[in-house]
Amino acid sequence: MMIWRSVVGKLWITIIGLVAVVLLILGMFLLQYIDIAFKNSHDVKVLFVYTAIIGFLLSTFFAFFLSTKITQPLLQLKKAADLISQGEYRTRVPIRSTDEIGDLANGFNQMASELETLIRDLNHEKDHLASVHRSMADAVVTFDAEGQIILANPHGQQLIDQWKELEWTDDFIGAHTQVPEPLFELYRKVLREGRDLTDKVQVQSGAWSVVMAPLKSNGTVRGAVAVIRDVTEETKLEKLRRDFVANVSHEIRTPLSMLQGYSEALLDDIAGSPEERKELAQVIYEESLRMGRLVKDLLDLARMEAGHIEMKLVETDLTVLLKRVHRKFLVRAKEEDIQLHLELPSEPLLIEQADEDRLEQVLTNLLDNAMRHTAKQASIVLSGCNVYNERKAFVEIKVKDEGEGIPQEDLPFIFERFYKADKARTRGASSGGTGLGLAIVKSIIDAHKGQIKAESAVGVGTAFTVLLPVK
Fold first, then answer.
1. 283: Cβ–Cβ under 8 A, 6 or more apart, which residues?
2. Are 451 and 467 a contacting pair, CB within 8 Å?
3. What does pTM read for this prediction?
4. What pLDDT shows up at residue 180?
5. Per residue in 268-281, pLDDT tens?
6. DSSP assignment string, 18-74
């Protein structure tokens, strides 16, 4: 029974039917006009010609009809295949028969449906990976075997563009590639060894951690993918941690040595008179006070950096605060023969939210530094005013001295803990400094969401400017 559903079967049935129809028509004409054949042979020939023409026309009509029924589905299949090749994966072929062409159309539709599902899943995974790739904080860059960039996320492209602006060294052999010079040696090593490698590179003032892995295909390395992370801040913090330990050790060692030495002198009765013993005891007392201030400053700074600083924010008139701090330092200024001036505007310097005690600590530290680094008969100016910048209001406080000044190369680091412009790192016991004053000042100003900056010239003086925002 399957032959009746096949195209070949239908073709043979049609041909047999056509032959039967032609023979039937021919027989009917022959039976009807048989007598004519014996009377006039010409009429019989004409009859046969007519019969042949009619049979040819009928056969041609049925053959064209059969051909159309077979070729039309095939043309639809070809058109659908072209559309799918162009990306129209939703294209389907209408099924109008149950023969082999119908089975082919059904199989084609199933294939198109599965292909559409596969492409949709692949696009979904591609979009998902692209989103992950794009949202990564690290820079990801993929290079091929020739050193050309295949793929890069926004951070990676931005980083490569920045590094491309750097000048190549004269002996850089990879200038014809898109691999930047800091990564080139690691890239070559990964291609040569075919394994994951890590490195840490320095580019100008930044530090970068690089993890590079090979891209393999059939055992052949066809490129490398690099994951680059900015570790500048971590490197800086690690350096600060090491410097902090070294600085604390240095600062504590000096008073401890003096305490130990003078204590041994008292125990060994080196001092022969009460005045000498009193002088030794006074030194021990001053050094213990110095250690106490150091520990207190360390604890205050640790609390501030941890965010545990207690701020009593109230409306404050800085005019009153500046006058009070000025009066407090007037006596010391007269003793050291330094002229201390106060410059204030006629209008009040009001801040809606400020901690008056902490701001007094800021001014005390700044004036104390100015006093210790200003020579006799020089002047120090403490001033305040209201300023306006980009639709914002600030109260500006400035402490300007005529001291020895700070070298330009030291200015960016003066707010770090224990940093001293004095490279000899010597400090007299009478100075009482701990090296933490400016670090504490900056932490307090940051807690007020303000700014502090320093301007200085060696031999001319230093000016510290504090900007506190006004709501």
1. 258, 262, 429
2. yes
3. 0.47
4. 85
5. 777 667 787 787 78
6. HHHHHHHHHHHHHHHTHHHHHH-HHHHHHHHHHHHHHHHHHHHHHHHHHHHHHHHHH
